[in-house]
Amino acid sequence: MFAGFRDVDVEVEHGAGRMRVRAVVGGEGPPVLLLHGFPQSHLMWHAVAPELAADHTVIAADLRGYGESGIPAGDLAAYSFRAMAEDQVALMAQLGYERFAVVGHDRGGRVTHRMALDHPDAVLRAAVLDILPTTHVYDSVNQRLGAAYYHWFFYLQPEPVPERLIGADPVWYLHTLLGSWGGTLDHVAADALAGYERAFSDPDRRHAMLQDYRAAATVDIELDRTDAAAGRLVTAPLLVLWGAQSVVGTGPDDVLDVWRTRATHVRGHAVDAAHFLAEERPAEVAAALREFLR
Predict the structure, then answer these.
(1) Is 275 a residue of the active site?
(2) Is 227 noted as a catalytic residue in this protein?
(3) Which of 179, 189, 201, 266 is 20 to 30 A from 98 in CA distance terms?
(4) Which residues contact 225 (CB under 8 A, 6 or more apart)?
(5) Which residue range forms the structural domain that includes residue 123?
């Protein structure tokens, strides 16, 4: 799905331990790292990455526990956005890039937010797609949001309750997620869907994905609250894109105003899409990113 790109498997090591990170690399020019969300992998960027590769070196990577990257072991800190960010910064360093732009969708957007806070010298520019900050979401829960984001609370239930329930028919459940958040499965390319199905059919990977959510509600939220109390903000220029029909886009929040409480230089706009805007409207997303990154 990434013609002209090469596959890389890189072993990285940092404070959170060792991890194998799978990525594809293509293009030439300033480096930009693309990070996917749940329940996907780097394959979600298949239509955007080639457009960016016209004038950038594009690295589309799988987060730990997702796609074809390694699966972490240990306590919830091993599944945190901080650990995921460390993986990706180490990956970029091994590829020869100490400073780079980063774009993240969904969970990858939360990794991007954490990376920009923890590694301000590495992140030149950052873009987050269809998310509001994690603490803002948890602090704003009402009936509407609880229904739309039910999975945030379902996945927090003690192991093995969600693991066993989802494991009864994982591919069917995957399809309901992709279809309901994107409005339809029609926006998902067949090869990408096959990759998502392959990963989601692995019980160890499903467990890792659930641990991601458990870590977000414990380890990550405490990190975010500590940063907020200290007044730490993202200082890199931040682009925020969101789906006009997504939960983010149809909610009561002014998306840019919320992000301006977390970052110093914020711009962005809605895209005529639901949650999976990079697959639903790839040309529009690629154009917005190219304009921001130049």
Answers:
(1) yes
(2) no
(3) 266
(4) 135
(5) 6-293
